[in-house]
Amino acid sequence: MATRNNTQNRPSGKRRGAEVRAAAWLARHPGVLATPTAVTTSVLELGPVTTGSVAAGLLTAAVAWRRIDPDTYHRHAAPRFRAVRRRWTRYHGYPWRRNLDACELTRIDRRTGAWQVPRVLKVTSPTPTIDVVTVKLCRGQSVRTFQGRRDELAAALGAEVLAIENAKPRVITITAVYGNPFTEIVPAVEIPDEAHEVDLTALELGDTEHGQAWSEPLLGNHWLVHGATGSGKGGLLWNPLRAMGPMIRDGLVKVWMIDPKGGMETEQGRPLFHRYATSTDPNVVLEQTGELEDETDAMVALITRFRDAMKQRQELLRDQGLRKVEVSAETPLHVLMIDELAMLTALGGRNVTYQVNKLLGEIMTQGRAAGFAVCAYVQEPTKDIVPIRDLFTVRICLRTTSSDYVDMVLGDHARLRGAIADEIPMTEDYAGIGYRITNTTRTPIRVRAGLVTDEDIAELVTTCTPLTRDDGDDPTGVVVPIAA
């Protein structure tokens, strides 16, 4: 009996009628029928002149929007226009079937002989060079079917690289990257002439793939920058310093630098820093004790003093009845920069790890209103290395060695939305390129940090070294000798 029921429930092998398939296709693509219907109705009811005037008015409005406010146009309108155009030119009809068939990603139904092609459900185009295509697979296919033909499919589509992931059962997401929008090296950002020209809520770091200046807010925020060795993290350390250089010179910003890698990256800029500690300079004097500490204790002590300075600022604000600091010479912005956080949070021993994570957690949960910011740079962003990563409000992901790291840094499903930082080539031509997430739409945007050379750092030190240095201005601070 069970065998007979199973036989009765098996498909007959006959295809649906052509009119049924056409109706189903129109139901999935209502715009194909709705658009000409609306135009025809408008012509009949309003006349061709009125209809043409309305269409011309809409086109003029779109062009005016792009010219008047390109930021909002590229954020809201351009991605939709691109998605519609590319869906019908790249991922639909004969071109799509031909490319998949050439890559052996189509199937023949052995019962009906019908040609089965994986169906495109959705196309988004968040940036000019990235398409995210959601595809429903044919029966008998899996994400591994497509992953096994990834290189062939990339070549067929003309894409530089593809990322293929499983979205849900029988549905995959293909992220296609077309070319490198940064055909030339982005130079280091210009140093403003005066402090009043600096905007701490929009520090320029480089360019976006839209050809616009890339800026990030530092005041009231904490940055986490992730990138593998050689990915260009140095550009995201020095460009912020160049962008706010006059404020450093005038004492409106005080930078506390920790370099656990021995100072190879930061030693040249040492005169800029209010406080400084490295793994090779244990001669850090604690003013309260006058004793020398070992190299790890020196860095932990500097973070402790940074926390203590924040507590003092909080008391000052309470006494003045203020809820938020105004940056001034009396209440400057304090920035703690840690070049390779993992050396302290995971590789420094259990006691050091506990102290550093506790101190940083306290600073980042309380320091925003007081004018205390943290900028951390790391090569491995796992919870074991950076257990407090959720406290960072601005996150940037440069080239990474693992696809899992992308979501760890940028948030859940960031890679599915197009942030394929693990696919960035390991060449100098791609140094400084990475992804950030827009705060409004959660859309990944490709960016490139400016290349900062030794000459650019020397220029920064020459023009922006603080005019006056008072290492006793913070009675609980850590004093590090500064080169003259």
From TrEMBL:
One of its GO terms (biological process) is cell division. PROSITE patterns: FTSK (PS50901). The keyword Cell cycle applies. SUPFAM superfamilies: P-loop containing nucleoside triphosphate hydrolases. It comes from the Bacteria. InterPro entries: FtsK/SpoIIIE/SftA (IPR050206), FtsK_dom (IPR002543), P-loop_NTPase (IPR027417). Keywords: ATP-binding, Cell cycle, Cell division, Nucleotide-binding. It holds the Pfam family FtsK_SpoIIIE. Residues 195-407 form the FtsK domain. ATP binds at residues 227-234. This is Cell division protein FtsK. The lineage of its organism: Bacteria, Bacillati, Actinomycetota, Actinomycetes, Pseudonocardiales.
